């Protein structure tokens, strides 16, 4: 009887892709996948170390899985395993700890001959692309994620990711296009490009305008109707790139920017290579080309030395710009980063107050974006059922739409007229 594996993922979309890559490798050697850890012979936690909260959730999840499936082999893999392998191994029930490179060869550590309990190499030596996985989707979703880049060479003072994922490495254009074609052959019509530093794609391969050239090549694939970008750094955007995206019939008008702050003194302390003025110029130019962008932003609240005026500058900037949603993070000091050594820490009660202010702004931005679409007909790729009768999916500009369908839908674009607001987006009627 085949052994069963259950995987649990914390953190970013890149981790979600990596988890599916792990499952793909294990399927190839005979494992069956189960969503029920109590049925599993092997439980895997793909860990996250980007914040202290993520660390706590990782440790808690490992302990809970050991209680739920005490006879299963328990693995900790990924970023927190890379960062602190001894601490992971010390958690009761953990049998094996694999770093970010080692998890790409997970099957070799599960053979009867393997006796290792910790396999974590020096990630700083990872200089070449090595992911040869054949991921057919993302844990059952309709959109297929395509990992095109890993690692980062930037030196943002708050960020531990370069220590966890190593130097920037890019998947060659030819390999990416071939992989995307295989996904289209399997029925996918939308791919999502993901990476640690997506805008830096191709630098390590000496590509000129690497990211735009990648998009140009992907556009030519017959049957690929949507190309969506993951989070991108503002310094990677240029007016030619924005114009190219805005005029494309295949690339989604959806930008998720790692803004972090709109106060120049804080941006300098973060070692971010742009100013609030530059952000304003880029966003203004993008919306001069088309007005239907979905525009998201990552924001760090309470970075050391962020006084009331700095926070007010960021809040005013976010208020004035046409953002459609915000991802908010309280500053989390990470050991080994320059920001961890900064003085003038912001007290936790002040950070909570500021977070609450921006959450209210986020709610306002999301509601306004949804209201703007009422009465419009938008194309939606269905993804999942909600409450047994409503199917949910996303428009090209990243608006979540719910609608009724009679049968299980195919991976196709469905025209939906948006009628009203929904607690998680909007609701509409399928046009037949």
The CATH topology annotation of the largest domain reads as Transcription Regulator spoIIAA
Class by SSE composition: alpha/beta
SS element count, helices: 12
What's the architecture of the largest domain in CATH terms?
A: 2-Layer Sandwich
The major β-sheet equals: 6 strands, parallel
How would you describe what is shown here?
This protein is of the alpha/beta class. The protein folds into four domains: 4-121, Methylthiotransferase, N-terminal domain (Rossmann fold); 126-252, 2-Layer Sandwich (Transcription Regulator spoIIAA), CATH 3.30.750.210; 265-274 and 297-370, Transcription Regulator spoIIAA (2-Layer Sandwich), CATH 3.30.750.200; 377-430. The chain contains twelve helices and 19 strands. The protein has helices at 13-28, 52-68, 79-83, 85-90, 161-165, 173-185, 210-219, 239-247, 264-270, 276-289, 308-320, 348-371, and strands spanning 4-9, 32-33, 42-47, 73-78, 94-98, 118-119, 144-147, 149-150, 169-170, 190-194, 226-229, 254-260, 294-301, 325-330, 377-386, 390-394, 400-404, 414-422, 425-430. The strands form five sheets. The protein has a six-stranded parallel sheet with strand order 2-1-3-4-5-6, with helices on both faces. A five-stranded mixed beta barrel has the order 15-16-17-19-18. Strands 7-10-11 form a three-stranded parallel sheet. Helix 6 (173-185) packs parallel to helix 7 (210-219), helix 8 packs parallel to helix 10 and helix 11 (308-320) packs parallel to helix 12. The radius of gyration is 22 Å and the shape is globular. It starts with a strand and ends with a strand. 43% of the residues are buried.
């Amino acid at each position: 009887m085949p052994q069963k594996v259950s995987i649990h993922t914390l953190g970013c979309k890149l981790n979600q892709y990596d988890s599916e890559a792990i499952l793909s490798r294990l399927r190839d050697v005979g494992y069956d996948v189960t969503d029920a850890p109590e049925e599993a012979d092997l439980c895997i936690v793909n860990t996250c170390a980007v914040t202290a909260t993520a660390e706590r959730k990782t440790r808690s999840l490992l302990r809970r899985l050991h209680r739920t499936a005490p006879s299963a082999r328990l693995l900790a893999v990924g970023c927190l395993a890379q960062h602190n392998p001894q601490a992971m191994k010390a958690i009761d029930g953990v049998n094996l700890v694999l770093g970010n490179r080692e998890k790409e060869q997970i099957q070799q550590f599960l053979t009867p001959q393997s006796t290792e309990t910790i396999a974590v190499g020096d990630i700083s030596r990872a200089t070449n692309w090595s992911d040869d996985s054949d991921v057919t989707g993302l844990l059952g979703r309709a959109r297929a994620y395509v990992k095109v880049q890993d690692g980062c060479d930037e030196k943002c003072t708050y960020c531990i990711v370069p220590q966890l994922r190593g130097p920037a490495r890019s998947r060659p254009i030819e390999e990416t296009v071939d992989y995307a074609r295989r996904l289209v052959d399997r029925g996918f019509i939308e791919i999502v490009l993901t990476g640690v530093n997506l805008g830096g794609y191709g630098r390590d391969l000496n590509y000129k305008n690497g990211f735009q050239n990648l998009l140009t090549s992907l556009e030519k694939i017959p049957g690929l109707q949507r190309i969506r970008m993951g989070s991108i750094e503002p310094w990677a955007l240029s007016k030619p790139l924005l114009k190219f995206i805005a005029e494309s019939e295949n690339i989604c008008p959806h930008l998720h920017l790692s803004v972090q702050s709109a106060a120049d003194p804080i941006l300098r302390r973060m070692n971010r290579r742009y100013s609030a003025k530059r952000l304003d110029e880029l966003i203004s130019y993008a919306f001069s080309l088309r007005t239907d962008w979905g525009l998201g932003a990552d924001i760090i609240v309470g970075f050391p030395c962020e006084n009331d005026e700095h926070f007010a500058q960021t809040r005013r900037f976010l208020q004035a710009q046409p953002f459609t949603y915000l991802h908010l993070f309280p500053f989390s000091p990470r050991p080994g980063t320059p920001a961890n050594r900064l003085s003038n820490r912001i007290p936790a009660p002040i950070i909570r107050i500021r977070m609450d202010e921006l959450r209210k702004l986020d709610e306002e931005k999301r509601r306004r974006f949804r209201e703007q679409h009422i009465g419009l007909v938008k194309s939606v790729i269905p993804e999942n059922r909600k409450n047994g009768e409503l199917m949910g999916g996303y428009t090209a500009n990243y608006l979540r739409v719910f609608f009724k369908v009679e049968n299980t839908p195919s991976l196709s674009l469905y025209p939906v007229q948006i009628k009203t607001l929904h607690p998680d987006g909007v609701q509409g009627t399928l046009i037949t």
